[in-house]
Amino acid sequence: MIQGRSLITKWILVPTTIIAISALLYFRDNASNADGTHEKTTALGTTSEARKKLADALGRSLWNNQLPTKVEVADKGLVNVKYTLDKDLQEQSEKLLLRYKPDYGAIVMMDAETGKILALSSYVKGQPKAENLTLRATFPAASIFKIITAATAVDRKGVEPQDKIAFNGGNYTLYKKNVLSEKVNRWTRFISLKDAFARSINTAFGRLTLETLDPKDLDEYSRRFMFNKYIPADFQLEQSQALVPEEKGYEMAQVASGYNRFNTMSPVHGAMIAASIINDGKIVAPYLVEELSSDEHESIYKGETYEIGQAITAESASKVRELMEQTVLTGTGRKTFRKLVRDKKYREVEMGGKTGHFSGTNPKGTNDWFVGYASDGENKVAIAAITVNIQKWTVKSSALAEMMFREHFRPGPSLKPETKNSGRPSRGNGQSLLARKESDKF
């Protein structure tokens, strides 16, 4: 009897031990943070640790618009760097800014599913050594923040794109007497959430917020979309901020409609927000380093997707996409995107976005935003384009985005098989830009 029990004990202990060891090895190589983010262990530590080391290694180089081909990485010494930038898209972004010469301009394009940075260009007229604007979070978020407000209303309160909003006053003003008034009279207008978003009607968004949302809702979702939070990129990036008042009122309506200059964000963050909407609500951290290798061509580290969390459900993301699509079809981006939308060569490409305008102080001038996405079902890209103009306009940011989308989904035979690395068929050596010397600008 004792022998039988011993045998049974062995049958139980051996599999249990194997399972325990396997679990230990799994969790050692696949760490999970307290906030729910999932990390793997790399040669440089966990994903977040590796990205922090890379950000330190790149240091101020990227801020100075430099792409060093070699960097000093903690514990690994001097290593070679291969970047994620797509040759065609990077060249296109640079050419566009040089062609139109806004006072200030920046373009960021990323693979919406993986977080790979495909293009990263900055331009300051007459200042070739100016800091990289794509990394700065000093630009007023303006009406781009309406994406956060709409996502909160849809995801938290179940508001539908076709639901009507009653409002008084002009389309683009935000007078206190109008936004705080609950009166419905002969001058009251009714507009759907979809049309209010597409046409960027400030008072309608102010009324939507005061009627359906609490300050804590807007604050929570702004954090879900990475305002007031550290973004674990593998390069140094300023933190975007959203100051949401603790009580309902006019200030809350200002924040929700983007009618203030105190809530600010970076172009990289803008692309992340758009990426989350086409990526079923998932927030993916951007990364710029594709691979590190030794002089002997030994791979030391490879960049990979890092999902931060779920900002909104996939169902809610689909509804917000409906709002953003309306922007380019009938809203503030319709004139810019008209030809592309009607072009038969791009009929399979789904596009959406949000425009935004507001005066800023750092840099000083009128900010013009476009944040959006495009997908052909296989490849999903997100973009943020911004121009700041002091006196006269040279180009709309929506036009920069339209030309970038046109370049990315441009029909034509590829020179190489399609790869997930660039998010589309490669038409040439996507790394030729990375052979530049450290002193070269991009």
Please give the CATH class of the largest domain.
Answer: Alpha Beta
Relevant CATH superfamily of the largest domain: DD-peptidase/beta-lactamase superfamily
The end-to-end span amounts to 79 Å
From the alpha carbons, calculate the radius of gyration and give it in angstroms. Answer: 24 Å
| Poorly predicted tracts of residues | 1-36, 414-442
General form: globular
Proportion of strand residues: 15-25%
Question: TL;DR?
Answer:
The chain is α+β, with helices and mostly antiparallel strands and 442 residues long.
Task: Write the SSE topology.
Blueprint: H1 2-29, E1 30-32, E2 38-42, E3 45-46, H2 47-58, E4 70-73, E5 77-83, H3 87-100, E6 104-111, E7 117-124, E8 139-140, H4 146-157, E9 164-167, H5 176-179, E10 189-192, H6 193-199, H7 202-212, H8 215-224, H9 250-257, E11 264-265, H10 267-278, E12 282-284, E13 289-293, E14 299-302, E15 307-310, H11 314-329, H12 334-342, E16 350-361, E17 364-375, E18 380-389, H13 397-408
Antiparallel strand pairs: 1-2, 2-3, 4-5, 5-13, 6-7, 6-18, 8-11, 9-10, 12-15, 13-14, 16-17, 17-18
